[in-house]
C-alpha cells in the first residue's frame, strides 16, 4: 500500500541521485522497516546509499514512523490518540514543532471532496468548519457556534482543548503556546493569503517561524486516502443560466480593466462554474467541477482541470469559451504572469498561488473575486428558475408534513427514516439532481445542535411532546432550495410556543423589512434578533446566507449576520431568512425561507431608492407552536396572508387528502 509521502520521497531520492519509481520506493520503505529491527539510523540509511540529503533522511524516518503507527491499518478503526501520536512523530522527523489542520481543500469551499477531509481523519470532527493546531506537547480544535455541542460529542477532550473559532481564534492560541525558536508547519494550499499572514504574524510575535511543508503530513500518513475526484463536467445550458459565457467573460474583462489588473486567477469553483456555464460533481451536494482558471483583460480563459472529466462532446463545447490545460501546468502559467498585475480572491485564493506569483515577480493584488458580485446578482432567468424550483419543492414539503403527522404519532419513527422520506419525495422531480446539503433531522435535544448530523449512533425516535426540526434543500437544474421547518410531535409546552413565536416575529421582521439601497446584511441582522433579545435570548449563527443558482446553498459574499460585512444588498441577490433558538439538551427551533432582494416603490417623500424582499419559499409554518397573543396586528396579518398564498398556490395541485391537510395547516389565526 502506498502513501502520499512515498511520491515525495521518490522525488527526493532522485535529487540525491537514487533513481526509484513509486513502487520501488514503497517496497524500499517497507523493506527498511522489516530489516531495521532497532533504532540504529545508520542501518536505515546504508540500505539506500551514503549520500542522502538531510531532507531525504527526514522523509524516510517520517515514513518509517507512519508505517509503524497502529492506525495505518484501516482495519484498526479510528483511534484519535494513535493518529495524533503518529502525526507528532512525523512532524518531529521533519524538524518542525507543530502543524495546522484546517477543514479545507485547495479551493476553500464549504463542501470538500473526501480526500480533503483531513480534520475528520485526524480528530473525528465532521462539521463543515473547524481547525486543529497540533503541537508536540498540546493541541486544540477550533469550531464556530454551530458546532460547540457537536465538537464535544465527537472529539476527545483529553487530547484537544475546545476553542471557539471566532471568539478564541487559532492565531491567539498559537501565540500563547508556541515557543521562541520553534517552527509551525502549514500547507500553503489550504490557507488563504490573509490567513497565512495572520499565522505568520502570530508566530513571529512569539519569536517562532511559520514554514510551508510538502507533502501535507496528513496526506503522507493517511493510508487509503481517497483519490482526487473525477466526476464528469457538463454544460449548464443557456435556458437555465440566462447569460452566455461569452457575455460573462466580456463583463469580467471590463472589470479587470477597471481594476487595472492584467489577469485574475479564478480559485473559487462556483465562480468558475458561473463564468463558463459548467457544472460538475466533484464535491458532495454542490454541482462543482474543481479546477482553476486564469482570465485576462481580453476575456481569454485558461482552464486548469483534469481532461478526464470532459467527455468528447463537452470538451468540444467548452473549447469555444476556454483553453483546457492540465492541472500540472498551473505553476508554469502563473510564472508566465510575472510581468503583470494579477488579482487573487481574498476569500479563496491559497497562499500557494501567492507564492508562485510572488516568486515570478508579478504584482499580486488581493481583493474580492471580480465574479463574486455578478454571480450573486441573479438574472431574470435565474430568478424565475428559482421561483419554479421552490414551487415544486414546496409541494413535496406539504406532502411530507402531511405524512409526518401520522407517521410520527406513535413514537416509532426515527430521524433517519424521516430524512429518507423527504429525499424520496424530492427524487420524484425529474429536475432534481441532489440534496443541497445533508438533511438535518433534529428531534428533541438533537435539534439544539444547529448543524446536527444524523448517524446511526445519534439516530433517535421522534417522541411525543418533543419538537422536531428539519432543515433540508434540493439541487434542481433550475434552482437551489433551502428550507427549515419546526414542528411538534404531540402537544407543545408554553415555553416552546413562546420561543417559537419570538423566532417567527424575527422572521417576519426581516421578511417585511424596507431599507435604502446601500444597506448591508449586518445592518438588518438586528431585526431578526430583537424579539429574542427582549427576553435575554439569542442564537449563535448568522440570520441569512447567500444562495446560488444551481450552485452552492451557501454563497457569498452577501449575508445577514452580526459579523462585519461591507457588501451592500442588491436586487437579484438571494439569501436565507432563518432566525432560531436552541436550548441545549432539549430542543431547537428555526424557521427558514429563501428571499430575493427586490426594488420596491419608495414611500411619498422618500429621498433614497428603496429595497425589500420577495419571499421565494412557500410552506406552512407550524400553527400549533404559535402563541398569537405575542403577535402584533401587522405580524398576524403577514402570517395569515402568507398562509393564504401557500394554500392558493397548491390547493388545485393536491389530491383531496393533502388539500384537506393543507387547509387546516394554513387556516387563519386570531388572538
UniProtKB/TrEMBL annotation:
The keyword Metal-binding applies. The keyword Manganese applies. Keywords: Aminopeptidase, Hydrolase, Manganese, Metal-binding, Protease. This is X-Pro aminopeptidase. Residues 386-599 form the Peptidase M24 domain. InterPro entries: Creatin/AminoP/Spt16_N (IPR029149), Creatinase/aminopeptidase-like (IPR036005), Creatinase_N (IPR000587), Pept_M24 (IPR000994), Pept_M24B (IPR033740), Peptidase_M24_C (IPR032416), X-Pro_aminopeptidase_P (IPR050422). It holds the Pfam family Peptidase_M24_C. Residues 83-215 form the Creatinase N-terminal domain. Residues 609-668 form the Peptidase M24 C-terminal domain. CDD domains: APP. Belongs to the peptidase M24B family. It comes from the Bacteria. GO terms for cellular component: cytoplasm. GO terms for molecular function: metal ion binding; metalloaminopeptidase activity.
Amino acid at each position: 500500500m502506498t502513501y502520499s509521502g512515498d511520491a515525495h520521497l521518490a522525488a527526493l531520492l532522485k535529487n540525491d541521485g537514487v533513481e526509484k519509481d513509486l513502487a520501488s520506493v514503497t517496497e524500499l520503505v517497507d523493506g527498511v522497516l522489516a530489516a531495521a529491527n532497532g533504532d540504529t539510523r545508520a542501518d536505515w540509511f546504508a540500505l539506500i546509499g551514503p549520500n542522502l540529503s538531510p531532507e531525504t533522511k527526514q522523509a524516510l524516518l517520517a515514513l518509517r514512523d507512519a508505517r509503524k503507527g497502529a492506525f495505518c491499518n484501516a482495519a484498526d478503526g479510528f483511534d484519535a490518540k494513535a493518529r495524533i501520536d503518529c502525526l507528532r512523530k512525523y512532524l518531529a522527523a521533519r524538524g518542525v514543532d507543530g502543524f495546522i489542520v484546517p477543514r479545507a481543500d485547495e479551493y476553500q469551499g464549504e463542501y470538500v471532496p473526501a480526500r480533503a477531509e483531513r480534520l475528520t481523519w485526524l480528530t473525528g470532527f465532521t462539521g463543515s468548519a473547524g481547525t486543529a493546531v497540533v503541537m508536540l506537547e498540546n493541541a486544540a480544535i477550533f469550531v464556530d457556534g454551530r458546532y460547540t455541542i457537536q465538537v464535544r460529542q465527537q472529539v476527545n477532550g483529553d487530547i484537544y482543548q475546545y476553542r471557539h473559532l471566532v471568539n478564541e481564534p487559532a492565531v491567539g492560541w498559537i501565540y500563547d503556546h508556541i515557543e521562541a525558536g520553534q517552527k509551525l508547519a502549514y500547507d500553503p494550499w489550504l490557507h488563504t493569503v490573509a490567513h497565512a499572514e495572520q499565522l505568520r504574524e502570530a508566530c513571529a510575535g512569539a519569536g517562532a517561524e511559520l514554514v510551508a511543508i510538502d507533502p501535507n503530513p496528513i496526506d503522507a500518513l493517511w493510508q487509503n486516502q481517497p483519490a482526487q475526484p473525477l466526476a464528469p463536467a457538463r454544460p449548464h445550458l443557456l435556458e437555465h443560466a440566462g447569460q452566455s459565457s461569452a457575455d460573462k467573460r466580456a463583463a469580467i474583462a471590463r472589470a479587470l480593466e477597471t481594476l487595472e489588473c492584467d489577469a485574475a486567477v479564478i480559485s473559487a469553483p462556483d465562480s468558475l462554474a458561473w463564468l463558463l456555464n459548467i457544472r460538475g460533481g466533484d464535491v458532495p451536494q454542490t454541482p462543482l467541477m474543481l479546477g482553476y482558471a486564469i482570465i485576462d483583460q481580453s476575456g481569454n480563459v485558461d482552464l486548469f482541470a483534469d481532461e478526464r472529466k470532459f467527455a468528447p462532446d463537452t470538451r468540444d463545447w467548452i473549447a469555444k469559451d476556454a483553453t483546457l490545460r492540465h492541472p500540472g501546468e498551473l505553476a508554469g502559467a502563473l510564472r508566465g504572469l510575472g510581468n503583470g498585475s494579477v488579482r487573487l480572491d481574498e476569500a479563496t485564493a491559497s497562499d500557494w498561488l501567492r507564492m508562485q506569483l510572488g516568486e515570478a515577480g508579478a504584482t499580486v493584488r488581493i481583493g474580492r473575486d471580480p465574479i463574486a458580485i455578478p454571480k450573486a446578482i441573479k438574472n431574470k432567468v435565474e430568478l424565475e428558475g428559482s421561483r419554479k424550483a421552490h414551487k415544486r419543492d414546496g409541494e413535496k414539503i406539504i406532502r411530507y408534513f402531511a405524512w409526518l403527522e401520522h407517521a410520527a404519532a406513535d413514537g416509532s419513527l426515527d430521524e433517519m427514516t424521516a430524512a429518507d422520506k423527504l429525499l424520496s419525495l424530492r427524487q420524484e422531480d425529474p429536475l432534481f439532481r441532489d440534496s443541497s446539503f445533508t438533511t438535518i433531522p433534529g428531534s428533541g435535544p438533537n435539534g439544539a445542535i444547529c448543524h446536527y448530523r444524523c448517524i446511526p449512533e445519534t439516530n433517535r425516535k421522534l417522541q411525543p411532546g418533543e419538537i422536531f426540526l428539519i432543515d433540508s434543500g434540493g439541487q434542481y437544474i433550475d434552482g437551489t432550495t433551502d428550507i427549515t421547518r419546526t414542528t411538534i410531535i404531540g402537544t407543545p409546552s408554553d415555553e416552546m410556543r413562546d420561543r417559537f413565536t419570538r423566532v417567527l416575529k424575527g422572521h417576519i421582521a426581516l421578511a417585511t423589512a424596507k431599507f435604502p439601497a446601500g444597506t448591508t446584511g449586518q445592518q438588518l441582522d438586528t431585526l431578526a434578533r430583537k424579539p429574542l433579545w427582549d427576553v435575554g435570548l439569542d442564537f449563535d449563527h448568522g440570520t441569512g446566507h447567500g444562495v446560488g443558482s444551481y450552485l452552492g446553498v451557501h454563497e457569498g459574499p452577501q449575508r445577514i449576520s452580526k459579523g462585519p460585512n461591507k457588501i451592500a444588498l442588491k436586487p437579484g441577490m438571494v439569501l436565507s431568512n432563518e432566525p432560531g433558538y436552541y436550548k441545549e439538551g432539549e430542543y431547537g427551533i428555526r424557521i427558514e425561507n429563501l428571499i430575493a432582494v427586490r426594488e420596491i416603490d419608495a414611500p411619498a417623500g422618500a429621498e433614497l431608492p428603496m429595497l425589500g424582499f420577495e419571499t421565494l419559499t412557500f410552506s406552512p409554518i407550524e400553527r400549533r407552536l404559535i402563541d398569537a397573543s405575542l403577535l402584533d396586528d401587522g405580524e398576524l396579518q403577514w402570517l395569515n396572508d402568507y398562509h393564504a398564498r401557500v394554500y392558493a398556490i397548491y390547493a388545485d395541485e393536491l389530491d383531496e387528502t393533502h388539500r384537506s391537510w393543507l387547509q387546516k395547516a394554513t387556516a387563519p389565526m386570531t388572538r
